[in-house]
Specification:
CATH architecture of the largest domain: Beta Barrel
Distance between the termini: 68 Å
Number of helices: 6
Largest sheet: 10 strands, antiparallel, barrel
CATH class of the largest domain: Mainly Beta
Number of strands: 20
Structural class: mainly beta
Order of helices and strands: HHHHEEEEEEEEEEHEHEEEEEEEEE
Strand order of the largest sheet: 1-2-3-4-5-6-7-8-9-10
Helix content: 10-25%
CATH topology of the largest domain: Lipocalin
Radius of gyration: 25 Å
Number of domains: 2
Length: 427
C-alpha cells in the first residue's frame, strides 16, 4: 500500500474531487453557495475576506503577527490553543488496519480579528499553510488549504456537540474525484486535540486516519533551556513573589517531605524502588497496565519517600531540588507561570543537567488546584497527567498522577507533601 501523507491541516494530497464535479455538487445544495465567504464578509464589521483567497493571500495572512485583541469568539472558543503543537497519527485502509504511523508539527496563530492560520511541517513533505474563518450568517466555518503548485483546497466546517468541528472538502481543484471528511475533537483544557479523517471516492473508503496532537508552547513563547534552568537553580532564594494571581497555588518556600504510593500491574520481574519521580515513572510504566482501583493479585504497590528543597527566584520562578530517602539528589526543576496562556510551565533536569521533562499546568485558584500534563518527549511515548491541590496555608499538597503509554493507563501514583520548615540559611 502506498504511504498516505495525511498532515493535520493539509489533507489535499490525499483528497480531491475535480473542480467541475465540486461546482456541480454545489448547485444541488442551496446551503453551499459557490463563494459564501466573500458575500458574507460584506455584511460584517470585520476585515474583509480576500477575494480570491489564493496562494498570495494565504501567505500574506500567515505573515501577520499573532494578536488576540478583539478576536472572534466563535473561533477562539472552538479550536485548539494557538501556538506550537506536536503530534502523531496512524493511517491505513480502514480503522482496523492502521498500519502506518507518522509524526508532524504545526504552528497556529490568531490574526486580523477573524483568521486562524497554520504552518504545517510533516515528514518528507514541504511546509503547508492554511487559513480559517467563521461565517456568522450560516453559523459555519470556512478553511482554505494551500497545496503544492499554488492549488487551494476549500473545506466547510460545522461545530459538534462535544466542542469539536467536522470538516468536509468543498473545492479541491485538480483532484481525482475523492473527498475528505475530517473531525477535530479538543481535549481537556485545550492542550490536546484528537483528529479522525476519512478519504472517500464513489462511496468507497480509501483511507482512514486517527491522530493526536499536543500543545507545546504559545506564540512567541520561548521554553527554558537546560542551561537557563541550571542558572536559576544556582541563584539565591528571593522571598518576594511578584505574580499575585497565582500566589495561592505556589507552595511555601522551605524544606518538604513527599510520600508517594504507586500502583502497577504485577509482573514477573521484581519492582525496584525508584530513586526519582522521573526515573521511577519510566521504570513503572514498562510493567504493564494498571487500573485506578487495585485488583487482588493483579497489582503491586510500593511506597517512595522524597525530600524537596523549594525556593523563589526573580519573583516569578519556583525552583526545587529533589532527594531520595538516602539524601542522594534525584532531579531538579523550575516552575513558572505564563499569564498570556494562563498556564504553569514546569521543566525538570536530571543529575547530569539534561532536560528530562516539560509539563504544563492549568491553574484553578478558586479550587486550590492545578491540572498538569507532561509534553511529548522525543525518546518515548509516555505521558503523565495529574491533579494537584494546595492547602490554604500553602504548607500541604496532595496529588494523583496517571502514567499512560500509547493511550493506555500504565501506572497510578498518589502522593502527599508536607512542609517541614524554613530554608537553611545560606553560608
Amino acid at each position: 500500500m502506498k504511504r498516505w501523507m495525511s498532515p493535520l491541516l493539509c489533507l489535499g494530497i490525499l483528497s480531491g474531487c475535480s473542480q467541475q464535479d465540486s461546482r456541480q455538487a454545489d448547485t444541488q445544495d442551496a446551503d453551499n453557495p459557490a463563494n459564501p465567504a466573500a458575500s458574507e464578509a460584506k455584511a460584517l464589521s470585520l476585515p474583509p475576506i480576500p477575494e480570491p483567497m489564493d496562494a498570495e493571500a494565504i501567505m500574506k495572512i500567515w505573515a501577520m503577527d499573532h494578536d488576540e485583541t478583539g478576536f472572534m469568539e466563535e473561533i477562539s472558543d472552538f479550536v485548539e490553543r494557538p501556538g506550537n503543537w506536536k503530534g502523531k497519527r496512524r493511517v491505513g485502509s480502514d480503522q482496523n488496519n492502521l498500519v502506518q504511523s507518522e509524526v508532524f508539527s504545526f504552528s497556529s496563530k490568531f490574526v486580523n480579528r477573524r483568521f486562524m492560520t497554520w504552518e504545517f511541517l510533516g515528514e518528507g513533505v514541504p511546509p503547508g499553510y492554511s487559513v480559517m474563518t467563521y461565517l456568522p450568517e450560516s453559523d459555519s466555518y470556512y478553511w482554505w488549504e494551500l497545496r503544492k503548485g499554488g492549488v487551494v483546497n476549500e473545506y466547510k466546517g460545522n461545530r459538534r456537540e462535544d466542542g469539536g468541528i467536522t470538516w468536509k472538502s468543498f473545492l479541491t481543484p485538480g483532484g481525482d474525484g475523492s473527498s475528505v471528511q475530517l473531525t477535530f475533537i479538543p481535549g481537556p483544557d485545550g492542550l490536546v486535540m484528537k483528529d479522525v479523517f476519512q478519504v472517500m471516492k464513489d462511496g468507497e473508503l480509501l483511507a482512514h486516519g486517527e491522530g493526536e496532537a499536543h500543545w507545546m508552547s504559545g506564540p512567541g513563547m520561548e521554553p527554558l533551556s537546560a542551561e537557563e534552568i541550571r542558572e536559576l537553580l544556582a541563584e539565591p532564594h528571593d522571598p518576594n513573589w511578584e505574580v499575585p494571581e497565582i500566589a495561592s497555588l505556589i507552595l511555601n518556600p522551605g524544606e518538604w517531605k513527599r510520600v508517594d504510593k504507586i500502583r502497577v500491574r504485577k509482573e514477573e520481574e521484581p519492582l525496584e524502588a525508584a530513586k526519582s519521580l522521573l526515573e521511577g515513572a519510566k521504570a513503572l510504566l514498562k510493567l504493564g497496565e494498571a487500573d485506578d482501583q487495585p485488583q487482588a493479585g493483579e497489582q503491586e504497590e510500593m511506597e517512595r519517600i522524597l525530600f524537596l528543597t523549594l525556593k523563589y527566584v526573580r519573583g516569578r520562578f519556583t525552583v526545587y531540588t529533589v532527594r531520595d530517602s538516602e539524601g542522594e539528589k534525584a532531579f531538579s526543576g523550575v516552575t513558572t507561570y505564563d499569564s498570556r496562556a494562563n498556564l504553569f510551565l514546569d521543566y525538570s533536569i536530571d543529575t547530569e543537567g539534561v532536560l528530562q521533562q516539560r509539563a504544563v499546568g492549568v491553574p484553578d485558584a478558586g479550587k486550590g488546584e492545578v491540572r498538569w500534563k507532561s509534553l511529548p518527549h522525543e525518546d518515548h511515548d509516555r505521558l503523565l497527567t495529574s491533579v494537584g491541590t494546595v492547602s490554604p496555608d500553602r504548607k500541604k499538597s496532595s496529588f494523583k498522577v496517571k502514567g499512560k503509554e500509547n493511550g493506555r493507563l500504565m501506572a497510578v501514583i498518589e502522593g502527599q507533601m508536607e512542609w517541614l520548615g524554613e530554608l537553611p540559611k545560606e553560608e
